[in-house]
């Protein structure tokens, strides 16, 4: 490649990087939300999903808990040491300050004609290099958001399993009481609920073009097959809307 073409390529690359940086700065200046959000649809009721979120975040101090609005927000938590350990490579100055918090929303709706709940997790991470630098947002690697969503899904599975076992035991006690009061004992005993196993669905690439199959109504308690565009989830309108 000639020196002239090399110079042109370098200039174009620098211009593109400058434009990207200017766009991010512009979004921040007008108050636009440049942070990423991660969500998943669970085939369960709102009460089970809300309690599962509280259980999954019980080790985190919450600043806002609005059940009617389906919104939780944690307090700001300092992770300066963790960020310096994870991001430090010796070539850049360590962070003077780093803090993060979680925002979680729980929305009722319908997924393929089945009642479902959509849980959205956002992790805000802000860092500051020195006293002359302002706190600015950092993009997330999605690990903690997806870990929290997985934990919520497992808790929903356990709660659903326990509810089905309790319902089964209640029916069994009723059958025994009815059989004990009759002349001939009844042999119509309900079967115990089957093991559901891990109902977590694997993530589907956003550009795969595949459509998620609708979950059967009896799969209550597990996350719905991943829909990258959330096209099958219909949110419930707000009260009075």
Topology overview:
Blueprint: H1 3-29, E1 37-42, H2 46-56, E2 62-66, E3 71-74, E4 77-78, H3 80-87, E5 97-111, E6 114-128, E7 136-137, H4 143-181, E8 233-235
Antiparallel strand pairs: 1-6, 2-3, 3-5, 4-5, 5-6, 5-8, 6-7
Helix pairs in contact: 2-4
Structural write-up:
This protein is of the alpha+beta class and about 240 residues long. The chain has one domain: 2-Layer Sandwich (Alpha-D-Glucose-1,6-Bisphosphate, Chain A, domain 4), CATH 3.30.530.50. The protein contains 4 helices and 8 strands. About 15% of the residues are buried.
Features:
Alpha-D-Glucose-1,6-Bisphosphate, Chain A, domain 4, 241 residues, 8-stranded antiparallel sheet, alpha+beta
Q: What would you say about this model in short?
A:
With 241 residues, the chain is α+β, with helices and mostly antiparallel strands. The chain has helices at 3-29, 46-56, 80-87, 143-181, and strands spanning 37-42, 62-66, 71-74, 77-78, 97-111, 114-128, 136-137, 233-235.
* Discrete helix count: 4
How many strand elements? 8
User: What is the H-and-E element order?
Assistant: HEHEEEHEEEHE
List the domain count as a whole number.
1
Mean pLDDT: 77
């Amino acid at each position: 490649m000639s020196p002239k073409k090399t110079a042109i390529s370098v200039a174009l690359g620098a211009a593109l990087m400058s434009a990207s940086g200017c766009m991010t700065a512009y979004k921040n200046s007008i108050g636009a939300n440049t942070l990423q959000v991660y969500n998943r649809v669970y085939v369960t009721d709102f009460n089970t999903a809300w309690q599962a979120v509280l259980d999954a975040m019980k080790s985190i101090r919450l600043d806002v808990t609005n059940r009617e609005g389906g919104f939780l927000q944690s307090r700001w938590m300092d992770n300066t040491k963790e960020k310096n350990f994870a991001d430090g490579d010796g070539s850049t100055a360590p962070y003077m300050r780093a803090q993060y918090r979680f925002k979680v929303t729980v929305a009722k709706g319908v997924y393929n004609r089945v009642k479902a709940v959509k849980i959205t997790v956002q992790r805000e991470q802000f860092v500051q290099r020195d006293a002359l630098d302002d706190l600015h947002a950092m993009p997330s690697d999605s690990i903690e958001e997806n870990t929290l969503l997985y934990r919520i899904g497992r808790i929903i599975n356990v709660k659903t399993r326990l509810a089905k076992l309790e319902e089964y035991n209640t029916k069994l006690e009723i059958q025994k009481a009815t059989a004990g009061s009759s002349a001939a004992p009844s042999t119509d005993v309900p079967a115990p609920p089957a093991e559901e196993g891990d109902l977590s669905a694997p993530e589907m690439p956003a550009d795969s073009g595949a459509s998620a199959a609708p979950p059967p109504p009896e799969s209550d308690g597990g996350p719905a097959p991943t829909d990258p565009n959330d096209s099958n989830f219909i949110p419930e309108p707000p009260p009075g809307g």
